[in-house]
Amino acid sequence: MRKELCMLAMLLSGGMAFAQGSVDDYNRAYELREKFGAKQVYYANVAPQWIDGTHHFWYVRETPEGRIYVVVDADKKSRKELFDHRKLADALSQASGKEVKADALQPQRLRVNRTLDTLHFVFANHRYTYAVKKNQLTDEGILPTPPKQKHWMEVDDEKGGAPVTSPDGRWSAYIKNDNIYVKELATGQEKALSKDGTLSNYYSSYIRWSPDSKKVAACRIRPVEKRYVYYVESSPADQLQPKLHKQEYAKPGDELPFKVPCIYEVETGREIVPSTALFDRQYELYGPEWNSDSRAITFEYNQRGHQVYRVLELSTETGQVRPLVEETSDKYVNYPRHFRHDLKDGERLIWMSERDNWNHLYMYDRRTARPTHQITKGEWYVRQVLKVDEENSCIYFTANGVQKEEDPYLIRYYRIGFDGNGLTDLTPGEGMHQARFSDDMRYLVDVYSTVANAPVAVLRDAKDGRVVMPLEKADISRLEANGWKAPEVFVAPGRDGKTPMWGLIQRPTNFDPQKKYPIIEYIYQGPGDQYVPKSFRSYNWYMTSLAELGFVVVMVDGMGTSFRSRTFENICYKNLKDAGLPDHMAWIKAAAAKYPYMDIDRVGIYGCSAGGQESTNALLLYPDFYKCAYSACGCHDNRMDKIWWNELWLGYPVGEQYKEGSNVENAHLLRRPLMLVVGELDDNVDPASTMQVVNALIKANKDFELVVVPGAHHTMGEDFGEHKRYDFFVRHLLEVNPPKWDEITYK
């Protein structure tokens, strides 16, 4: 009896080798990165590159023998090798002084000429040209060092534009002393068109000439003092002492620049400076652009708070501004979905809007500033316009939700007439589709898959979507031999008991339905997108290895995310703390009810960025459901985060809705284990956001864990943080002590 009790005690304490969270589990979890890696899948990752102006395209075949570059003639339905791999490998080996294997060629930035006999590419930081038939390789020198790119948070001051020559070649326009000047190129004579530009109210250097070369347009800009975030790099690689970094970073409520589009006539000097009544509360003003008749400019106005968006036209004759399109909402106009196309007739434009609760295309009459008709219609979502074919009066676009019998998030490609008739599915077949068209839209290469079905690549006719030629079907036999199993697509109602929520369930490879498995949710629920994978992935960095430790890992898109309907997404408005969590909990409960091995009493959650905010938020507000959380680089207080994200979803001005969702304000509610992670150089979310949660937790006398990763930017925690995350969940959900790090052999 005593022996049996000892054995039971060892089992409960995690001391036995086959218990969940063991050394073997850790080694196996790390090993899956390689066993389930992309190299275990053949004939996948087809990325066709159409050759300019032809019906030829090339792509790489990932075969058991290595990488093979092939070119396809769509008209002849034929395929051959793009070049002799052995000859090119030998030539590169001789030129670079390094051995290059024929089955592992990987030239970068590869371009192929129309006659298929010349390749241009980059290899080992050199530019090369290769004459295929002559087997002649020419080294064109070292690749120039690219100019340093501005950080995406930096606002363009519009001061760096070069002089602009008029369409007739007579004039050059430029900025001098903060004003617009023009110079007659034949005589060199210059004159100032504007005279009111100053250091604090200057003219943009992005000057637009009218098509008739008689007028110029540019914005006068009133700048503002900028906000900066400061970072201390504690352990720089090139010196002993720390470094201080500074980054432009506008936050909610900050002052923004103000722009006024102005027009100047070159010969007469006449100025047209409009009333700003229709664009007086700017978040941003885009443009201007000249109309083809040179009689007006068009620009777009995004109102602060994002409840009004206008397309405006300024007449050169009257100086009056009139709206061509006005989009309004009591919540927010979803301007990141923006699409506008001005037709060449100068009388119509195509506009995208969510005004009927779904994202659709509308035809507008510019003269009346009203829509003539809705082009696309139905309870589905236009995702992207690929091309407006004016010659044939049709539009090529992507959409999801058209096929009611399948996952509503799956994207297909379509064509429709300007009149709204002739909707044609160009990518039939269930799956998430990614297609690339020939320049003339005659053919398309369609690559499609689901999380359970490996990629298939086919060449299709772009008129009706019929298959012209099969290309590849991924071979996952080696992957399956290594124990790979697809995650389960699981659907269950959300908070309202009727709206289906779509998610994934990932189980370990040694799954045993007789065991009990704690549940870990990976969350990224920020609005503006949809996040649960829909395409085939042999290895999911957020789910696969973590499940192998002895968990069932789940992910779900709840209300507040995109591409279902406007109503579905608008749950997030002034309510980011909702985070779809009521839907997530309902979905997890439904899964646990169906699968009793999912232990609903042991649920953890983790995420990064918005997911970092949401995982902590879940722990603070729903501690009876979520028992522990790992939160990396969270935007824990939206007043501390970037301006565009937060003013779109939480509104302007900054009010109580920002404070209500703050994990800093709610830190005192903590009563479950929490690990906070932050990169000291996070250039996406201000690291101070995490540290302010830390400060609040300390003041509230709360126990928690903090991991700061030196030199890291916006991160889930890198390899170190991943191991910390594994240990955290093993300790708090499996309730066993994780193995010592030096006991784990596979990395």
Class from helix and strand fractions: alpha+beta
Q: For the largest beta sheet, what order do the strands appear in spatially? A: 36-37-39-38-40-41-42-43
Computed over alpha carbons, the radius of gyration is 29 Å
Helix fraction bin: 10-25%
Gross CATH architecture of the largest domain: 3-Layer(aba) Sandwich
The termini sit apart by 41 Å
CATH homologous superfamily identity of the largest domain: Alpha/Beta hydrolase fold, catalytic domain
| Number of E-type strands | 43
Rounded mean pLDDT is 95
Q: What fold name stands as the CATH topology of the largest domain?
A: Rossmann fold
Structure, described:
- This protein is of the alpha+beta class.
- The protein folds into three domains: about 1-35 and about 480-745, Rossmann fold; about 50-140, no CATH class; about 165-395, Dipeptidylpeptidase IV, N-terminal domain (Methanol Dehydrogenase, Chain A), CATH 2.140.10.30.
- Helix content is about 15%, strand content about 35%.
- The chain is built from twelve helices and 43 strands.
- The strands form ten sheets. Strands 36-37-39-38-40-41-42-43 form an eight-stranded mixed β-sheet, with helices on both faces. Strands 13, 14, 15, 18 and 19 form a five-stranded antiparallel β-sheet that branches.
- The longest helix is centred in the last third of the chain and has 17 residues, at about 720-735.
